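The following record pairs a protein chain with its ligand, adenosine-5'-triphosphate.
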Amino acid sequence: KSKMANSRYEYVKSFEVEDEVFMPNLIVVRIDGRDFQRWYLIRFSQVHEFEKPNDERALNLMNSCAVAMLEEYPDIVFSYGYSDEYSFVFKKTTKFYQRRASKILSLTASFFTSMYVTKWKEFFPQEKLRYAPSFHSRVISCASIEVLQTYLAWRQNDCHTNNQYSTCLWMLIKSGKTEKEAEEILKGTQKQDKNELLFQQFGINYKNLPELFRRGSCVFKTEVEDIVKYHEDGTPVKRLRRKPRIVHSENIAGRNFWSEHPCLLK
Ligand code: ATP
Ligand code: ATP
Ligand code: MG
Ligand code: MG
Ligand code: MG
Ligand code: MG
């Protein structure tokens, strides 16, 4: 770095793309698995035999990587994910990498990816990782808390819509329809129709499906009492620690959620 200063090479530095996310905007990063499903390429979820529509192992692996992210980067105050995606919200006043989008993007995506690979065996003990997965990512610069909440509401709504659709689709396929036929049946159906279909044809009450599938997962730090050591007489020495916790909340954009967790936005 110092060798560069005042050298004849230095002017090249001015060609680096400037991409600071200015205060007081909130930095959100969303990462998403590349080609986990798209039909015309190798599908990561197919190659690794994900259960359809929801592979619990894969979701738990994603959640575990998100926990690792919050442990690694203290400036991440909140995250939300489902399927092959996760959004990370940085604290308002973060100075992380001078708030440079490209640095933050590349770091979060590469750390998440290497965690995903490192933890693979823990969640898929029977399934060999057949090729190197990758995640793409983007920065969303939220101008206010309201924008952030709308953003989160959008992702959670997407989780719900996709999950309801794919639950119907895969129930139809598992009952003998081809993928095309199943898609044809679902074309133009509303939310209510899909709930009806699940109930009438398969006896499934959508509301009773696991929260992990329907609501997605939040990870944020809460205070927990930890025993750090024991006194000689055996009494424990406790300390409050902030630890990442996984929660499946009904409405992460709602006022209730944010007033219950005010520390998130400090
Ligand atoms: P940043 O996170 O900003 O990139 P950094 O600590 O990685 O900070 P760099 O300027 O990227 O700093 O420097 C990387 C340093 O890592 C080198 O200066 C060197 O000391 C060490 N390093 C990298 N590769 C090797 C290597 N193959 N053998 C020995 N040392 C290495
Ligand atoms: P892109 O590279 O643009 O992200 P993609 O093929 O990954 O394309 P997405 O829109 O990200 O497409 O969709 C990811 C798809 O991966 C889901 O729709 C689903 O089919 C599959 N998938 C992801 N996670 C799981 C899971 N836990 N269980 C089952 N299927 C999953
Ligand atoms: Mg270097
Ligand atoms: Mg994807
Ligand atoms: Mg996705
Ligand atoms: Mg370096």
